[in-house]
Amino acid sequence: MAKLSHWFAKGSPMTIKLENLGKAVLDTQYAVRGPIVARAAELEREGREIIYCNIGNPQALEQKPLTYIRQTLALAQYPELIETGAGLFPADVLETARKLLAGSKYGMGAYSESKGVRFVREAVARFISQRDGIEADPEAIYLTDGASKGVQAALRIVIGAPSDGIMIPIPQYPLYSATITLYEGRQVNFYMDEGNDWKLSLAMLESSYREAVAQGVKVRAICVINPGNPTGSIMDWENIAMVIRFAKAHDLTILADEVYQENVYLAGERFVSFAKVMAELGEKDVSLFSFHSCSKGFLGECGQRGGYMEIRNIPADVVAQILKIQSVGLCANLTGQMTTYCLVNPPRPGQPSYELFARERDGILSELKQRAVILAEGLNRIPGVQCNKVQGAMYCFPRLTLPPGRSDFDYCMSLLEETGICVVPGSGFGQVPGTAHFRTTILPPTYKMKMVVEKLAAFHAAYK
Amino acid sequence: MAKLSHWFAKGSPMTIKLENLGKAVLDTQYAVRGPIVARAAELEREGREIIYCNIGNPQALEQKPLTYIRQTLALAQYPELIETGAGLFPADVLETARKLLAGSKYGMGAYSESKGVRFVREAVARFISQRDGIEADPEAIYLTDGASKGVQAALRIVIGAPSDGIMIPIPQYPLYSATITLYEGRQVNFYMDEGNDWKLSLAMLESSYREAVAQGVKVRAICVINPGNPTGSIMDWENIAMVIRFAKAHDLTILADEVYQENVYLAGERFVSFAKVMAELGEKDVSLFSFHSCSKGFLGECGQRGGYMEIRNIPADVVAQILKIQSVGLCANLTGQMTTYCLVNPPRPGQPSYELFARERDGILSELKQRAVILAEGLNRIPGVQCNKVQGAMYCFPRLTLPPGRSDFDYCMSLLEETGICVVPGSGFGQVPGTAHFRTTILPPTYKMKMVVEKLAAFHAAYK
């Protein structure tokens, strides 16, 4: 490949100039793919082995896709195979592909409605109904290119002016802080209680709200990530009801990021959705955006970019605005839409593909559960490192005791340079001032996880 | 499916309220999927046959996907088929799928680098090099979910303040006006010369620029669509050089929308890229963003949402900002990335899949060419309708003589109600004040096209 030097020549009088870029663009930070990850890629090109624990990207760490999903997608892409390759696929997968193609009307190559293929939205609504025992409406479902795009669509609508505040948990997934900055809203932090398994308390919410209002912020919405990223904590019914009542009391809209709903590891814990609690409370005034994704759970289909947003208690005039803004981007990719169909419509017991599906699913979930324990226990054995149990999601967010003058950024960069382990400093997620953390995924294969813990322990002991 | 009534109940005290939404969101308009299209969907649900001429969505109008693309995508999704189904695929497609899977490292299910899979970006750079006889750098390529997302990424970077102006052709594709409104920049119109086959003139550019500057606008960039949407016009080398010199003189960045580069119908016309002319002029200061897509040309793979943005003459500090903003969205969908690989790397003469590929490609292009002629000639035979030759792209933008007091919006709505033909009023694209137009695609199958023209003629004659 020919090399170009002129396009990145510095100091040249090019027509686009850094000083003319917007403050919002310049201020946006996204640590999950920030300078430490850039350095990791550099080291990898130099031949170093890097263990990427910076991002929830399971299939980059040896997790295999579920067979029924890939079979369905292959048939949807090349429908001739339903006939010519019939012998290579289970009967129920052939049937699903046929239904999907008929339901999509034009297959994978046409733009769908802006909201996504109605047939898939109907399946999502049935999934929510059955999961939660509540009503769900296909017209309130928007299929999105992964959950990130759904969250961005919701924030685009909710942030109406520079004084509009969005409450986010600290620590949080930096998609939230980055998008609030980019859309020029005000980030309003509320702290999760690290000493109490990262639980939320009403006192914390109220004090964060009061402080923001005192600063002239008009608080419009509260974001919640359940199960938590990066904390791994899980909210119970009462906790969720508390957030809903808090939102109602202060006229707030709720954004509920529920992409880790299948990732619950601790015995006795289970996922409860905001939509379910809201319905059970009979709450009809608190506006709710909920998000789900094909990238997490046991699918781990990050590259397909599938997901959905469900809206509840949104007035018709605002719904029209949501649809209009979605329509400018035309529609989510059809493969992602079809993957979402598979997410909400897995093989059922008795179907030919069920046994393999169940084996693959259970294998992935039990591996994740095992790694969550190995990682948290291993980290807690390192003097100066302390972490809560990983109840759910795909991350661990240990607290560090650091030598004076050292930041978690320095620590993570040195860890990378010395061990090849790539994690993200706590500063990228937010933390109580004066504390230091990092986020690591629980995704390295089990046989590597012990080595990761050992390397971390040795590194930490020697870190000055 | 159970019906919900509460989520769209009007006038209820829900926490999200129209009056709190941002002006930018409220002001955004996107006619290609506006009220006329919504009405068309309503009529269709009531059982009416609708001919959707509002959007360039070929596979929704009976265009078939290219076999080698779908075969490649099926194998990439379900790699086991490379072995188990080997007999069902040509050898070169099996080989391409193997290379793609190896090149992507983790297949279709993992997030790629934010810019997209390097292997695909290398293929894009080779394609540009070979198409234009110029150098191209894979690191200057960003794979995007369709070209729309690329255009939005570029505008996000270029619009830095509310006084920043973006010059756009009138008529234009409303993605541009919608995104400029959403990002709170200033839209600066320049008119294409309808009486001269929609050509651009330097005088028009200069007068539009001067007028904007006089109003306090800081003009930052100029957008060009070549071949033109909705005009179907094609720019030659001299025309492009004129725009580049104009941009240089006024310190403007260029956004070149080249998604219709394969759609050239008129004998003697050919597509020339901005990158090529810029290189041939030896121009190293004018910053350029160019866009290409899998949705148009002869692929018509709109639902796969594949495309790329190439950047030239951008300083390193701005490049870092582009990459950062792209990384918040993680990456484009992998199916779209792989479709882009197929776009830039089609079967070559002598390969087993070439003959079928060439037959499918030539069939689609010759149909489109035929329809462009039938449509333009047919429209020109209607008294009170007048249009230029469709030189390229997928649209025709005829001018209408309307009864007094009637707008093109009224006209298009009546046309839909009476004939089932769905087109978009000229006001959605912009037009010289006092004139009226509509945009129709040339995509209805040839056997339907004559009927479309006849229905239009009858409707127009009776329209009061």
What does this structure look like?
- The structure is a homodimer of 464-residue chains.
- By secondary structure, chain A is an alpha/beta fold.
- Chain A has 2 domains: 23-62 and 358-462, Aspartate Aminotransferase, domain 1; 103-344, Aspartate Aminotransferase, domain 2, CATH 3.40.640.
- Helix content of chain A is 42%, strand content 13%.
- In chain A, the strands form 3 sheets. Chain A has a 7-stranded mixed beta sheet with strand order 2-8-7-6-5-3-4, with helices on both faces.
- The longest helix of chain A has 27 residues, at 354-380.
- The two termini of chain A are 43 Å apart.
- The interface between A and B is large, with 119 and 118 residues.
What keywords describe this structure?
homodimer; 464 residues; Aspartate Aminotransferase, domain 1; 16 helices; 2 domains; 5-stranded antiparallel beta sheet; Aspartate Aminotransferase, domain 2; alpha/beta
Please provide a brief summary of the model.
The structure is a homodimer of 464-residue chains. The first copy, chain A, is an alpha/beta fold.
Summarize the largest interface: chains and residue counts. A-B, 119 and 118 residues
CATH superfamily of the largest domain in chain A: Type I PLP-dependent aspartate aminotransferase-like (Major domain)
Morphology of chain A: globular
Distance between the termini of chain A: 43 Å
The low-confidence runs of chain A, each spanning 5 or more residues with pLDDT under 50, are 1-10
Listing every helix as H and every strand as E from the N terminus to the C terminus, the arrangement of chain A reads HHEHHHHEHEHEHEHEHEEHHHEEEHEEEH
Based on the structure, what is the oligomeric state of the protein chains?
A: homodimer
Rg estimate of chain A, integer Å: 23 Å
Main β-sheet description of chain A: 7 strands, mixed
Number of domains of chain A: 2
- Tally the helices of chain A: what do you get? 16
CATH class of the largest domain in chain A: Alpha Beta
- Which secondary-structure class do the elements of chain A indicate? alpha/beta
CATH fold-level label of the largest domain in chain A: Aspartate Aminotransferase, domain 2
Number of strands of chain A: 14
Mean pLDDT of chain A: 93
Strand content of chain A: 5-15%
User: Within the largest sheet of chain A, what's the order of strands?
Assistant: 2-8-7-6-5-3-4
How much helicity do the residues of chain A have?
40-55%
In CATH terms, what is the architecture of the largest domain in chain A?
3-Layer(aba) Sandwich
